């Protein structure tokens, strides 16, 4: 038996499945659980002749529940699968998996207690994941609940705290958790939850390590990991901006060394509006604009632009060069007097300077 994680587009219902070909199953009893915690019980699959796809022998309802959830959220999470091998007894394999997962308590706090006990007994994260048929990341996420104060864990067990709030609290220091718990226990105070809690923890700036222009190894401060969102954040925003500004200055100098006439670093929070600029190559006076997001710390360089008010005279000069030359003839502008008595007809009418001036106006 081999456990693996596969995206939905690599799975299909096997003809061996007893409900293959029937209409979509009723998911009302399992969809709330899948929506809250995802698919925990692995699907039983086997290769269907292609190394990139597998067919589902058991787990059809879990598969349809995952597809329904993907339609709701606009994205699909991969599914845990147990791959059958030649000679395996499928009934015994699925019975073994169900028996293992059945020992896993339904709420996350109870799962944390179980996993923590296994860790103390010497089991590793990969071993726990293999035992219960879940991914190593799922095990790490559950173990992260150990970072919570006991009173917060108990409130989470009693559903007094939602899942998103509990997960953000795993990133908080013990002092921050105590401050939040004091707000939570006081009916007259407001304890931030969800995304507001995330902003509260980071002083209004939750800056991801993905936006750093500098090497993460050069950051001397604390980095907080979010196991649930697969993100890492800078704990000290001031220290981040010190390193980020140094990196922006280095990028500006590098652009100047590469021949750009000017590099303009916009004020933090000031947006670069493309409709106020037009693409202009370096050789014709194009500049580099660097926009900096104050809240998220993201840096967005835009190379090869010039303000439209500066580009207008150049456009007019090009238009002048493209205008056709006068076609002199018997009725050329030199022989015309006024438009009121002009008898010139096309194509000679183009030779009239008045007509050309109106055309280019």
TrEMBL record:
Pfam families referenced in this protein's UniProt entry, alphabetically: ParB_N
GO CC annotations, alphabetized: chromosome
Biological processes, Gene Ontology terms: chromosome segregation
GO molecular function: DNA binding
Span of domain ParB-like N-terminal: 1-101
Ranges of biased composition (kind: Basic residues): 318-328
Region (Disordered): 314-336
Family: Belongs to the ParB family.
Stated name of the protein: ParB-like N-terminal domain-containing protein
């Amino acid at each position: 038996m081999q456990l693996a994680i596969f995206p939905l587009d690599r799975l299909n219902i096997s003809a061996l499945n007893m409900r293959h070909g029937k209409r979509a199953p009723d998911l009302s009893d399992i969809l709330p659980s899948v929506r809250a915690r995802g698919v925990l019980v692995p699907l039983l699959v086997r290769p269907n002749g292609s190394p990139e796809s597998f067919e589902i022998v058991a787990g059809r309802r879990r598969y349809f529940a995952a597809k329904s959830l993907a339609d709701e959220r606009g994205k699909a999470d991969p599914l845990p699968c147990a791959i059958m091998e030649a000679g395996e007894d499928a009934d015994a394999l699925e019975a073994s998996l169900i028996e293992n997962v059945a020992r896993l308590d339904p709420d996350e706090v109870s799962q944390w207690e179980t996993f923590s006990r296994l860790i103390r007994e010497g089991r590793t994260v990969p071993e726990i994941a293999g035992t219960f048929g879940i991914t190593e990341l799922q095990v790490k996420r559950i173990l992260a609940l150990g970072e919570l104060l006991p009173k917060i864990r108990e409130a989470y067990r009693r559903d007094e705290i939602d899942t998103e709030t509990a997960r953000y609290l795993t990133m908080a220091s013990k002092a921050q958790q105590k401050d939040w718990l004091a707000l939570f226990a006081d009916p007259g105070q407001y304890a931030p939850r969800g995304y507001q809690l995330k902003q509260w923890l980071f002083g209004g700036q939750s800056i991801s390590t993905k936006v750093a222009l500098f090497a993460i190894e050069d950051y001397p401060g604390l980095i907080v990991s979010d196991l649930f969102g697969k993100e890492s954040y800078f704990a000290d925003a001031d220290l981040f901006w010190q390193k980020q500004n140094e990196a922006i200055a280095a990028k500006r100098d590098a652009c100047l060394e590469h021949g750009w006439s000017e590099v303009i670093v916009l004020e933090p929070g000031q947006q670069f509006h493309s409709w106020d600029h037009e693409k202009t190559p370096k050789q014709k006076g194009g500049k580099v604009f660097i926009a900096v997001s104050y809240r998220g710390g993201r840096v967005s360089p835009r190379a090869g632009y010039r303000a439209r008010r500066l580009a207008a005279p150049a456009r007019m000069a090009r238009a002048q060069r493209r205008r056709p030359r006068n076609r002199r003839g018997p009725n050329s502008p030199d022989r015309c007097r006024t438009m009121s008595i002009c008898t010139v007809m096309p194509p000679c009418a183009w030779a009239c300077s008045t007509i050309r001036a109106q055309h280019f106006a």
